[in-house]
Specification:
Chains A, B: One of its GO terms (molecular function) is DNA-binding transcription factor activity. Chains A, B: Keywords: DNA-binding, Glycerol metabolism, Transcription, Transcription regulation. Chains A, B: May be an activator protein for the gylABX operon. Chains A, B: It comes from Rhodococcus tukisamuensis. The structure is a homodimer. The first copy, chain A, is of the alpha+beta class. Chain A is 47% helix and 18% strand. The first copy, chain A, has 2 domains: 65 residues, Arc Repressor Mutant, subunit A; 188 residues, Beta-Lactamase (2-Layer Sandwich). The first copy, chain A, contains 10 helices and 8 strands. The first copy, chain A, has a 6-stranded antiparallel beta sheet with strand order 5-4-3-8-7-6, with helices on both faces. A two-stranded antiparallel ribbon of chain A has the order 1-2. In chain A, helix 1 crosses helix 2 and helix 4 crosses helix 9. The first copy, chain A, is globular, with a radius of gyration of 21 Å. The N terminus and C terminus of chain A are likely disordered.
């Protein structure tokens, strides 16, 4: 029977999800054997389940026989993720019009920043953070903002773990990072200089939810040689934040709740 | 046993997919009972499968106990859909800079247009087509372009079916639509005037893949009162197309293939 698990405790659902999981980090389309190896499943099982997933549209088979995630999953995700993007996109687009620099809007998910929206033109900086990408909090300006305004227990827990080095300028000394986060709270903005990647600098400001907690950050990324220009972007960034916070205050409570759950996870997860 | 199907021929996989399916058209978060009813599954089954989906992150439970699609599915979809958007976004952004009108890039999927990317500011027209949305081909300018340049068998099959009326100006007479599609091929662009919704007009131009077939369209949407302005947008739209087609020609064949499979579906599907 198709639905019957072979190993005790491993359900068909967990196998289907293990198959989808292989595509999370896949650079491109995968062969059945790649999927089976990564998912740790028998090829016969993968063959059967992939066929069902393909038929529904969760996966697609290319002419070369390799599989990739299907457009139907993309559509379901778009539909789920759109609420917040629909709100933040116009003000972010106007910030781009003012600055013509790469601008983005990010939230914290666990110990990472996740990029909700990003606007850039052809004159753009190397793409480190695309929409949907996750990065650690400490080497990014949006992440520093989100860390600086988090509850003490969370910030202390984050600083207690080893700080991943992303470039030779990443701040990996917890005491130095803690001091910088104090300055972020005093100044109301965070900046980075080649801390996530050489050649890039960035600046970010906090965005507050109606209940007052900082839930997101608006950031701008520049070539690091233009680090000195950062202050001139702050007024327009703060103008964007004022508009965003006004829009958030106008949301019906259930909508705000749905947005919170999707982008920030359950309060349980936030405490983990 | 968790994985064991209750009804003959209905596998656990098909049930998991039926659960995800309930979220495709959901206006917001759903209760377990809503999911069970829509998916046609016993509440106990839904309860068990949803718990597994939630644990993995495919679904999320809000504080009100309702479920919605989880951010993890959004991330997988983003990752799968990004290749084409990464290519089209900068030229589209530059078209927006030139026009400051709502611009979009769409492909044909079956008998519908699907919006791959869309750029708009705060001065925007009513949102009919968001990224990920599907619309019929005949009432939209991008759709008319994709229909006009399709193979005869497809166009004839499309025209042979009843043409859905979206507004009182939607062209539902197949002979009239066929004549207009000829004009689209002669002029190299399509336009609509209140055919998808009252108050809106639009214009679109074709985008060709390296092998020469029209696979996408670039469009601009305006308030219908500005219909007379449409011609002045054509030069910049054609400039955007030239850039896009150059970018597509520069793609490695496997990447172009992966993009085709994801966005256009298998050639089999295209023949259906």
């Amino acid at each position: 029977m198709a639905g019957q698990p072979r190993e005790p405790g491993r359900t068909t659902t967990s196998r289907v999800l293990a198959i989808l999981e292989t595509f999370e980090s896949a650079p491109g389309p995968l062969q059945l054997t790649d999927i089976a190896t990564t998912a740790g499943l028998p090829l016969s099982t993968v063959h059967r389940l992939v066929a069902e997933l393909e038929q529904w549209g969760a996966l697609q088979r290319g002419p070369d026989g390799r599989y990739q995630v299907g457009i139907r999953l993309w559509e379901i995700g778009q539909n789920a993720g759109r609420r917040l993007r629909d709100i933040v996109h116009p003000p972010l687009q106007d910030l781009f019009d003012l600055t013509h620099e790469t601008v983005h809007f990010a939230v914290r998910r666990g110990t990472e920043v996740i990029y909700v929206d990003r606007i850039y033109g052809s004159r753009r900086v190397p793409r480190i953070a695309r929409v949907g990408a996750r990065l650690p909090l400490h080497p990014t300006a949006v992440g520093k903002v989100l860390l600086a305004y988090e509850e003490d227990w969370f910030r202390e827990a984050y600083l207690a773990h080893a700080l991943e080095r992303r470039s030779r300028y990443t701040i990996t000394d917890p005491r130095r990072l803690a001091r910088e986060l104090e300055v972020v709270r005093e100044d109301g903005y965070a900046q980075t200089q080649e801390e996530i990647a050489l050649g890039l600098c960035s600046v970010a400001v906090p965005v507050r939810a109606p209940r007052g907690d900082v839930v997101a950050a608006v950031g701008i990324v520049l070539p690091s040689v233009r680090f000195a220009e950062i202050p001139r972007f702050l007024p327009s960034m703060r103008g964007t934040v004022v508009r965003l916070e006004k829009l958030f205050r106008g949301l019906p409570q259930p909508v705000e709740q749905a947005i919170r759950t999707f982008w920030l996870g359950s309060s349980v997860e936030r405490k983990q």
